[in-house]
Amino acid sequence: ALAGLAGRNLILVGLMGAGKSAIGKLVANALDLPYVDTDHEIEAAARMTIADLFVQYGEPEFRALETRVIERILTEGPAIVSTGGGAFVNPVNRALISQSGLSMWLKADLETLWDRVRRRQTRPLLKTENPKQTLKDLMDRRYPVYAEADMTVLSRNVRKETVTRDVLKALA
Ligand code: S3P
C-alpha cells in the first residue's frame, strides 16, 4: 500500500463526523507511519481548546493558526494527517497539501455525519439553532471543494476497520 504514497503525506479531508481521526489512526497503524491531527496540534500550540479559541480569538485567528500548523506538520512528514473540516476549503492550505502529499476525501452522507457529531457538543460551528441544518449547509458549500481531493473514499456507517480497508485499497 505504501507504493501509492511513496514517502509523501496522506492528508484526510472531509466534514466533521466523517471519521478523519478514527480512520487516520488505523491507517497510520497499518502503514506504520506517524499519525498527526491538525486540530490537536492547534490546541497544543494555542494551549486551549478549539472551542475556546473560537470564543476568545474568533474564527479568522483560528484559521490563521490552522494554516501555520498545517504547514509545519506537512514539512515534518511523511505522516497520516487528519485535518479539521474547514482546512481544505482554504486554497492556501490546498496548495500546501498538494505540494506535500496525497489528499483523500472521506465522504459521508448527512445521516452518518449527524449520527456521529450529535454525540459530541464540542464543535463551535455547530452551536446553532439547528445544527443538523448547519451541517447540511456546510455539505452543500464544501462538497464541491472536497471533490478536488486526489482520492475519495466513502465513509459509510460501518465499522471503522471496513473504511480503513477501503482507504488502504485506494492507496495500493
Ligand atoms: C471545523 C471542523 C473542526 C475544527 C473546527 C472547524 C470546520 O474539525 O477544525 O471546529 O470548519 O468544519 P473536525 O472536522 O475534526 O470536527
From TrEMBL:
<keyword id="KW-0479">Metal-binding</keyword>
<comment type="pathway">
    <text>Metabolic intermediate biosynthesis; chorismate biosynthesis; chorismate from D-erythrose 4-phosphate and phosphoenolpyruvate: step 5/7.</text>
</comment>
<feature type="binding site">
    <location>
        <position position="142"/>
    </location>
    <ligand>
        <name>substrate</name>
    </ligand>
</feature>
<keyword id="KW-0963">Cytoplasm</keyword>
<comment type="subunit">
    <text>Monomer.</text>
</comment>
<keyword id="KW-0028">Amino-acid biosynthesis</keyword>
<dbReference type="InterPro" id="IPR027417">
    <property type="entry name" value="P-loop_NTPase"/>
</dbReference>
<feature type="binding site">
    <location>
        <position position="123"/>
    </location>
    <ligand>
        <name>ATP</name>
    </ligand>
</feature>
<dbReference type="Pfam" id="PF01202">
    <property type="entry name" value="SKI"/>
</dbReference>
<comment type="similarity">
    <text>Belongs to the shikimate kinase family.</text>
</comment>
<protein>
    <recommendedName>
        <fullName>Shikimate kinase</fullName>
        <ecNumber>2.7.1.71</ecNumber>
    </recommendedName>
</protein>
<dbReference type="GO" id="GO:0004765">
    <property type="term" value="F:shikimate kinase activity"/>
</dbReference>
<keyword id="KW-0418">Kinase</keyword>
<keyword id="KW-0067">ATP-binding</keyword>
<feature type="binding site">
    <location>
        <begin position="17"/>
        <end position="22"/>
    </location>
    <ligand>
        <name>ATP</name>
    </ligand>
</feature>
<feature type="binding site">
    <location>
        <position position="39"/>
    </location>
    <ligand>
        <name>substrate</name>
    </ligand>
</feature>
<feature type="binding site">
    <location>
        <position position="63"/>
    </location>
    <ligand>
        <name>substrate</name>
    </ligand>
</feature>
<dbReference type="InterPro" id="IPR031322">
    <property type="entry name" value="Shikimate/glucono_kinase"/>
</dbReference>
<keyword id="KW-0808">Transferase</keyword>
<keyword id="KW-0057">Aromatic amino acid biosynthesis</keyword>
<comment type="function">
    <text>Catalyzes the specific phosphorylation of the 3-hydroxyl group of shikimic acid using ATP as a cosubstrate.</text>
</comment>
<feature type="binding site">
    <location>
        <position position="85"/>
    </location>
    <ligand>
        <name>substrate</name>
    </ligand>
</feature>
<feature type="binding site">
    <location>
        <position position="21"/>
    </location>
    <ligand>
        <name>Mg(2+)</name>
    </ligand>
</feature>
<keyword id="KW-0460">Magnesium</keyword>
<dbReference type="InterPro" id="IPR000623">
    <property type="entry name" value="Shikimate_kinase/TSH1"/>
</dbReference>
<keyword id="KW-0547">Nucleotide-binding</keyword>
<dbReference type="InterPro" id="IPR023000">
    <property type="entry name" value="Shikimate_kinase_CS"/>
</dbReference>
